[in-house]
Specification:
Chain lengths: 277, 303
């Protein structure tokens, strides 16, 4: 009896914690279905009196908010960031874990610093560099700058995975006539695919959610991804919260979808880079 | 014969290095070089006319001293703001995430489910979280005021984002909400390394729950606490998105952090040299914390 009661109160506690975390998201969604008048109604209505989809119709039809295009921009930036990050980080992490690389420790140190660095520390110099390369208002500038923190992050997460692969696997691949490249592609990659998925998921999310680089390097609103656009809508047009909230909901749909599809990788992978050195 | 051995060795080594060279070049070009270039910009006089003239005009540490001794005190204010923000964010994040880790750290279905669901708060883009909280902190019709009013905590709606102190509180609260899930997972991982035999032995000796917590659990996870602390310092010190969306440094410059100040100086006022100087201050502070972080990682790796 006592045990049952304890179990119940435990669940209640867990429920309250969950509520604090789920409620803001629910609130965002619920209010995106309200009129602008109802949004600031006092007392607030927990669920819209008359849920409307007009906010969504409005943002999808308006030239100004440009949902399709900025969604596409976000997707483009996130996908290419992911591809570019994996292409650079995967072989580097493998080399740092398997071969005796000169200055290997120094490289690792630079990657740790790179992961720690604030985005704003690199912002002015990168702006100057991209400006002299005529890359302002191109996706390339944003993708490159996001990679300056996703590549170190990816290397630091994947290196321990590669370290854990027994050296016999490399040896036997060599015996079977693989050279260093084919061994990497045919033998090592297939067995390290879970770590690649973890890295890909997080890189995609980081690319999707990045604010400061697109905000600075893309001055053309039509080129901006959703997150950068919404931040300027907040500061400039904060009177139409109904549209803002609808826009926000659309912008996190991919994040929520990825969260539920990839939950295993996300929850398990979240603490990897920081705990294993 | 000698030559072929040597060449084979060379080819092997070269192909090994070919794995790391692209990433290394990328890091040199877009991390190491910007750090150095940032320093160069900060000791030169660089304004909007730089793009037409392309001329460096060395001024030494003038940008730094001007910022520091300027009567508007923006630099010192932003350092204090960042410190206040970081201090309270970390204190509350550690207390809450450690308590939650103790509470949700068990291996039952409900605690595993709750832990997983909390992570969603962490992966939502910070801009969107900031937008949600900005809306919830609104003076009229904001849900937070409504809850506080209905529980009688406050008598009148609070204009959270209209005054410096309350705006800072709102940003700290939002940041704690974001950081707790990640740190909770770090603590949960740390707690699994605590040997249950120690706890049992202490129980047999009659140690109460608090005594066991302070004498066994916390000393056993000191490594995790160090990591949480240093990572927390690093992540909190460089805050940008949250503050940019919720207050943009305002009202006045009461929530202006180092990163926001650097951004505003560079891209609203086109004083790239001052912006670079401010971000260099941020860089130096981050490196000091980073030094401890790297030390912790190294001692862990060598064991």
């Amino acid at each position: 009896m006592r045990k049952k009661l304890f179990g119940f109160s435990y669940c209640l506690g867990a429920f309250i914690i969950l509520f604090i975390y789920i409620f803001p998201l629910y609130w965002l969604f619920a209010n995106s279905l309200k009129t602008n008048v109802e949004i600031f109604k006092n007392p607030p209505t927990l669920w819209p009196i008359q849920p409307i989809v007009e906010n969504y119709i409005a943002i999808f039809n308006s030239e100004f908010s440009n949902v399709y295009q900025s969604f596409g921009n976000s997707l483009y930036i996130a996908v290419y960031t992911t591809i570019f990050t994996i292409a650079l980080a995967l072989p580097a992490a493998y080399a740092l874990a398997t071969f005796k690389i000169k200055f290997g420790q120094l490289f690792i140190l630079i990657f740790i610093i790179g992961q720690m660095l604030s985005q704003t520390v690199k912002l002015v110099p990168l702006f100057m560099i991209f400006r002299s390369m005529n890359l302002i208002n191109t996706f390339a500038s944003v993708i490159i700058s996001i990679c300056t923190f996703t590549v170190p992050f990816a290397i630091l997460i994947m290196r321990p995975f590669f370290l854990a692969i027994p050296s016999e696997i490399n040896e036997s691949a060599k015996m079977d006539g693989c050279n260093i490249y084919t061994a990497f592609i045919r033998v090592i990659l297939p067995i390290s695919y879970p770590s690649v998925v973890v890295v890909a998921v997080f890189t995609f999310l980081l690319g999707w959610g990045d604010l400061v680089y697109p905000l600075t390097f893309l001055t053309d609103f039509r080129k901006r991804p959703m997150i950068a656009n919404i931040s300027s809508y907040v500061t400039e047009f904060s009177t139409s919260w109904n549209l803002l909230l609808a826009f926000a909901v659309v912008s996190i749909v991919p994040v929520v979808v990825i969260f539920f599809l990839m939950q295993k990788y996300i929850v398990g992978g979240l603490t990897l880079g920081s705990v294993k050195g | 014969m000698f030559g072929s051995v040597k060449r084979k060795f060379f080819v092997n080594r070269a192909s090994e290095y070919s794995f790391i060279i692209p990433a290394a070049l990328f890091m040199l070009g877009f991390i190491v070089y910007p750090i150095i270039y940032n320093f160069v910009l900060s000791v030169n006089d660089i304004g909007l006319d730089f793009f037409s003239k392309k001329q460096y005009n060395f001024v030494g540490l003038k940008n730094y001293t001007d910022l520091w001794f300027n009567s508007d005190k923006r630099l010192s204010t932003s350092i204090i703001n960042t410190a206040v923000f970081t201090f309270f964010s970390i204190i509350f994040t550690i207390l809450i995430s450690f308590s939650l880790a103790l509470y949700l750290g068990r291996n039952t279905r409900i605690s595993r489910f709750s832990r997983a669901m909390l992570v969603i708060a962490y992966i939502i883009p910070q801009t969107i979280t900031a937008l949600m909280f900005k809306y919830m902190f609104a003076q009229d019709g904001g849900i937070i005021n409504y809850i506080l009013l209905s529980f009688g905590v406050v008598d009148a709606p609070v204009g959270w984002l209209l005054k410096g102190g309350t705006a800072m509180t709102a940003i700290i609260a939002t940041n704690v909400w974001i950081s707790v899930p990640f740190n909770m997972l770090l603590f949960v991982a740390g707690l699994t390394t605590v040997d249950p035999e120690y706890i049992e032995a202490a129980m047999i000796d009659g140690a109460g729950w608090w005594r066991r917590l302070f004498s066994i659990t916390i000393p056993c996870i000191s490594e995790t606490i160090k990591i949480v602390l240093t990572l927390g310092l690093i992540h909190t010190f460089k805050v940008f998105d949250l503050v940019y969306v919720i207050t943009n440094g305002g009202p006045g410059n009461s929530t202006e952090m180092l990163s926001i100040l650097s951004y505003r100086l560079s891209f609203s006022q086109n004083q790239y040299d001052d912006g670079a100087a401010v971000s260099n201050v941020l860089f130096i502070i981050l490196m000091m914390v980073g030094f401890f972080y790297i030390k912790i990682l190294n001692t862990k790796g060598n064991r």
